[in-house]
Amino acid sequence: MNGYNFLELAIKDILRVINPSKEDWSVRFHIINEVRAVAESIESLRGFNSNLFTKWGDLDISIELQNGSYISSPGRKHKQSLLGDVLRALRKKGGFRRLQFISNARVPILKFESFYNISCDISINNLSGQMKSKMLFWINEIDGRFRDLVLLVEDPFEQPANTARTVSSNQLIKISAAIQATHGILTSPNHNQTSLVSALAGETYMSVTNEDICVNTCNQIRNKKPWC
């Protein structure tokens, strides 16, 4: 066996170990439904939503606030107040442990651990987190090798001591630019973090329209398969 074949087999073995099983997916969906019983309108974020999580990865949940057909962006104080209400509701419901409200974080979050030993973070209308999740999901849809690379290197959403290792919005824009240069246009060249987040806010139908445009673009790029 040559070195290349040995490396290929080793990588496949590693991916087999770290890839989530059907049970890992089911457990996370169960946790989401448990939280949904307290706050109906929620959306999973980041690793889970973009299919870029390991079997021991944590779960990030955003509680979505809508005013009719309008997706709002509440202020920091409002988010803190709502998370306080969620904290009390989760304590009353039971089934969650190590509940911790981190109000002074850049994005206020409520942390807890499920009885499945999965760490979970809850935020309010985390549009930036949604944008990152969708961008990474679309990139993964274009070329599935991206997912293997992410899982082998590190979970991009973990928060290590060195925050330079986390995926930032600017890095996502650079990844999109690379995709645009090699496969086609994924986002507008004028997009930045603010405009991408804005694309998810406002009228619901506009948010859905923007998503549909990106999904159709990804399908067109994937069908061309320029890397084969």
TrEMBL record:
UniProt-listed InterPro entries: MTPAP-like_central, NT_sf
Gene Ontology MF, one: RNA uridylyltransferase activity
Span of domain Poly(A) RNA polymerase mitochondrial-like central palm: 10-136
Biological processes, Gene Ontology terms: RNA 3'-end processing
Alphabetized PANTHER family for the sequence: POLY A POLYMERASE CID PAP -RELATED, PROTEIN HESO1
Record protein name field: Protein HESO1
Organism, scientific name: Sesamum radiatum (Black benniseed)
Lineage, highest ranks first: Eukaryota, Viridiplantae, Streptophyta, Embryophyta, Tracheophyta
